[in-house]
Write a structure and sequence with these properties.
The protein is mainly α and 357 residues long. The protein has a single domain (2-355), classed as A middle domain of Talin 1 (Up-down Bundle). 77% of the residues lie in helices and 1% in strands. A two-stranded antiparallel ribbon has the order 1-2. Helix 4 (87-115) packs parallel to helix 10 (259-270) and helix 4 packs antiparallel against helix 11 (274-299). The longest helix has 35 residues, at 207-241. Residues 28-178, 213-355 form the Sodium/calcium exchanger membrane region domain. It comes from Pseudokineococcus marinus. GO terms for molecular function: potassium:proton antiporter activity; sodium:proton antiporter activity.
């Protein structure tokens, strides 16, 4: 019963601690409940995925996490004042780097270590990476090169175009993934996957059980993001205490919010279903941009101060390197430990230069 009890407990803890200053012991307890909520979210996501099948299961988790991540960003920007004008950029970019390098790298490394070579659909992974590259460039790179406003900002008309373009690209990708070319995003059948299916096969859950898990998934994700917000003051205090840049707060938020997808991707990699891992990673990266930017564009109507979206020069280099390496990884349709290690080194480089810019 723990997957049912944990989301309820997390919501109770969230209600009891919301808006209050917490001491060291309550902060640790909230962190423990947060970790439990992540595990519950992964469990319910897998139940829903088993019911609806791939790639819908990955899409459900990616969209659910991103919608709540956007709500967290908006909440922090409204309550945080001028110092949060780069929070959306920092969190979205961190999400892109964590998913395309961290989740992808860990999944490839785990899969290749167990099965030797990991196989996936190059068509689906390549289409996803191309969409991510277009989204990231249109929304996070171009603000540095436009001349309507000084600084890394869009004018209102440019922001509106970027929002419409982002939503259009994301919608087209979802249609391609779930309707037109769904087979591009299904796991590649191997001897290992066939054996895993035979050993772990179970009848899909009933519609009622899947609906219950979907509701508990949403509750768990709300709890994860709400508890992450409660932990944010402690995170900011720790960041300031060790002298890290304020942008590192966005990275920590992205790490917390993406924990459910990371665990789900690793569990899929252990079953030699690397395509599901890539669906989760690339889908989350796309949703982070394709849903956040349109929402921020609407919210900017009442948000105070400028909205800084343009990346710094170091971040642009890291993004370009990630895209190039990602293309070389997905084009062959197979990968070894080396590719996983390369992506993890890129994630380590991103984290290092975020700490020591």
């Amino acid at each position: 019963m723990w997957p049912v009890l944990v989301p309820v407990l997390a919501v109770v803890v969230l209600a009891a601690t919301w808006g209050r200053e917490l001491g060291p012991v309550p902060v640790v307890l909230v962190a423990a409940v947060l970790a439990s909520s992540v595990l519950a979210a992964v469990h319910h996501a897998e139940v829903v995925a088993h019911r609806v099948g791939e790639p819908f299961g990955s899409l459900v988790l990616a969209v659910a996490v991103t919608v709540i991540e956007v709500a967290l960003i908006i909440t922090l920007m409204i309550s945080g004042g001028p110092e949060t004008q780069t929070l959306a950029r920092d969190t979205v970019f961190a999400a892109v780097m964590i998913t395309t390098n961290g989740i992808v790298g860990l999944s490839l490394l785990v899969g290749a270590r167990r099965y030797g070579i990991t196989l996936f659909n190059a068509e689906g992974a390549g289409a996803a990476l191309a969409t991510i590259a277009a989204l990231a460039t249109l929304t996070l790179v171009l603000p540095n090169f436009t001349s309507a406003l000084s600084g890394p900002e869009f004018s209102p008309a440019q922001l509106a175009f970027a929002a419409v373009a982002s939503l259009s690209l994301y919608t087209m990708f979802v249609f391609t993934q779930t309707v037109r070319h769904r087979d591009f995003f299904l796991p590649v059948t191997t001897a290992a996957t066939t054996r895993e299916d035979a050993e772990t096969h179970a009848d899909p859950p009933t519609g009622r059980a899947a609906a219950q898990s979907l509701a508990l998934l949403l509750v768990s994700l709300v709890a994860v993001v709400g508890l992450a917000k409660i932990e944010t003051p402690a995170i900011e205090a720790a960041v300031n205490a060790v002298g890290l840049p304020l942008a590192f707060v966005g990275i920590v938020i992205a790490l917390l919010v993406l924990l459910p997808e990371t665990l789900a991707a690793l569990r899929a990699a252990r079953r030699d279903r690397i395509q599901i891992s890539l669906n989760l990673a690339f889908g989350s990266a796309m949703a982070s941009i394709g849903l956040t930017i349109p929402t921020i564009a609407v919210a900017s109507i009442w948000l105070q101060g400028p909205l800084v979206l343009g990346l710094g020069s170091t971040q642009i280099v890291m993004l370009a390197l990630t895209v190039v390496v990602g293309v070389l990884t997905v084009v062959p349709g197979r990968a070894t430990r080396l590719q996983g290690g390369v992506h993890l080194v890129l994630l380590a480089a991103f984290l290092f230069w975020a700490i020591a810019p």
